[in-house]
Design goal:
Structural class of chain A: alpha/beta
Largest sheet of chain B: 3 strands, antiparallel
Order of helices and strands of chain A: EHEEEHEHEHEH
Helix content of chain B: 25-40%
Number of strands of chain A: 7
Oligomer: heterodimer
Radius of gyration of chain B: 22 Å
Strand order of the largest sheet of chain B: 2-1-3
Shape of chain B: elongated
Distance between the termini of chain B: 33 Å
Strand content of chain B: 5-15%
Number of helices of chain B: 5
Strand order of the largest sheet of chain A: 2-3-4-1-5-6-7
Largest interface: A-B, 80 and 71 residues
Strand content of chain A: 25-35%
């Protein structure tokens, strides 16, 4: 179990950052996370009570409806002091309360658009727009699906012209990387302004 | 093209469904929802000596020189300390040990109070990320 324990000095604790990956069910969230993550995407499960989420005391919840929310996430070590986490956000509307917590402090977000059912990403776009979370739209190009241009998708989503729209293949690391680079580039530009 | 939820072609002449933009592009709608603070957050925010505010991506590391009395700990806490010889986020601890995040937070909070582990809070809206950090993130992603 011992790692690099050769000396006694306490290693500094790295700081973490997160980027959210949102989109409808099956749009390719976990695929995109897995393409760039240095670890196989992990899944953490939260048991929530439908009636009163956020309650710490789980005793006596037997009578309430409980629901399990799974979150998939990956990790990219930036350097010894910085770790980036990518969280696939549960797409269903009923998990919006988790989005609130997740979006807190997020650098930005990737909304994956599946043009076979574009409406499944509307909720994500609405959410990030409302919360002022910077985001990019990544159009996942599925084989056999009609390909739309970024302009067509931009128009259908009524996007702010400043929101980048990129085509991607979530399975390809280079392509997924390009999506993240587009997002972070936008953040750098915003910070400079 | 067999996806469910799909509109029949004759109802979608232009192919893509249209989203109605919400709240325009200004910032006005952003803060109108009011604070969404859940009870346990409020409790932890108080000046209780025995609670620690932990985020899903708070990074935790086992304290190196700490004397660990394993008998005084929950078995899960011993496993957490072993796992955290290398820095791990709360979410990673939860996933690796298959313990819900809320429970991990309680167990970790105890370890932090005993001085057996150290945690670092993530960047938040109150500690905006500097351009240098963003540039480092960009470089890190490009190195992948």
């Amino acid at each position: 179990m011992a790692s690099n324990d050769s000396d006694d000095t306490q290693a500094p604790v790295p700081a973490a950052l997160k980027i959210l990956v949102a989109g409808g069910f099956g749009a390719g969230k976990t695929t995109l996370v897995g393409s760039v993550s240095e670890i196989t995407p992990l899944s953490t499960e939260e048991v929530m009570t439908e009636a009163s989420y956020g309650i710490d005391d789980l005793s006596g919840v037997e009578s309430k409806t409980t629901t399990t929310v799974a979150l998939d996430f990956g990790r990219i070590t930036i350097n010894s002091g910085l770790v980036l986490y990518l969280f696939g956000t549960p797409g269903q509307e009923r998990f919006w309360f988790m989005w609130e917590e997740l979006s807190e402090g997020a650098l930005g977000a990737v909304v994956i658009a599946d043009t076979r059912r574009l409406e499944t990403c509307f909720a994500s776009v609405d959410f990030f727009e409302r919360r002022g979370v910077p985001f990019v739209v990544a159009v996942n190009c599925f084989e056999g699906a009609h390909t739309y241009s970024p302009e067509e998708v931009r128009e259908a989503l009524s996007l702010n012209p400043a929101v980048p729209v990129v085509l991607c293949d979530a399975r390809e690391r280079a392509s997924a990387k390009n999506v993240l680079v587009t997002l972070v580039n936008r953040l750098v530009e915003q910070t400079a302004a | 093209m067999q996806a469910h939820n799909e509109l029949p072609p004759d109802e979608a002449p232009h192919g893509l469904p249209q989203r109605d933009a919400v709240g325009g592009y200004d910032d006005a709608a952003r803060d109108d929802a009011g604070p969404l603070v859940r009870p346990y957050v409020i409790a932890q925010g108080r000046d209780h000596a025995d609670t620690v505010q932990l985020d899903m991506i708070s990074v935790v590391i086992a304290a190196k020189r700490a004397e660990v009395d394993e008998m005084a700990l929950e078995p899960e806490q011993v496993r957490i300390l072993e796992l955290c010889r290398r820095p791990q986020s709360v979410a990673e601890v939860s996933a690796h040990l298959d313990i819900p995040v809320a429970v991990v937070k309680v167990l970790l909070s105890d370890l932090l109070n005993r001085g057996l582990a150290l945690a670092r809070a993530p960047y938040t809206a109150k500690s905006p990320v500097s351009r240098d950090v963003l540039q480092a993130v960009l470089d890190g992603i490009q190195r992948l």
